[in-house]
Amino acid sequence: MHIEPGVVDAAKIVLSYATAAGAAGYAGWMALNAIREQGVGSLLLRSGLATAAVFTFFEVLPHFPVGVSEVHFILGSTLLLLFGAAPAAIGLGLGLLVQGLFFAPFDLPQFGMNLTTLLVPLFGIEALARRIIAPGTPYVDLRYGQALALSTAYQAGVVAWVAFWVLYGQGLSVGTLAAIGSFGAAYMLVIVIEPLADLAVLAAAKSLRGLRGSALVTRRLHHAA
């Protein structure tokens, strides 16, 4: 999902500063809510774990260039279900920043675009989760269909934002549409794998009774809303 250097030139890239600032501001508002719910210590712990997970997703798990960008196993819905929306957002942002600072400095000019691409779909599936998961249902009791819906929505959001940045930067042409299409098709692999990863993680969390009420995971993992 990384936007490649040169896709959006310097004159246009200023838009990404605005979208990233908006996404960061919303993540900050969610972080305040998370502090009220579980305390600042829990937020820091969950954000740290999410950051480590995101860095692993980006640098350790397989990733490969396809079309206009790269396909990564981001597992955004997994982060949401395990740590909650605010820690997941912080983890995505910090993981992306650490990768850029130490391993891919050529990605730093595109940080605003990449941050927007990761966070806005996360906010979307957080809202979707409230609609499709009953308030009395802990996340550990999710069904496959619900996990699939969250994963599909997140990956579709990532693909949509990548398509937006490419069309914004390069304009509409047969070549760009073909490249976007191949990139989107490749993400179908992630949609196949991610719901299974979600259910595996949730099953493990359900069996580990010590996590119930732990500051390491979101309260909703084991409890009703």
From TrEMBL:
The chain crosses the membrane at residues 12-31, 43-61, 73-98, 110-128, 148-168, 180-205. GO terms for biological process: transition metal ion transport. It is found in: Cell membrane. It is a multi-pass membrane protein. One of its GO terms (cellular component) is plasma membrane. Keywords: Cell membrane, Membrane, Transmembrane, Transmembrane helix, Transport. Gene3D superfamilies: 1.10.1760.20. It comes from the Bacteria. Pfam families: CbiM. The keyword S-adenosyl-L-methionine does not apply. The keyword Signal does not apply. This is Cobalt uptake substrate-specific transmembrane region. It comes from Paracoccus solventivorans.
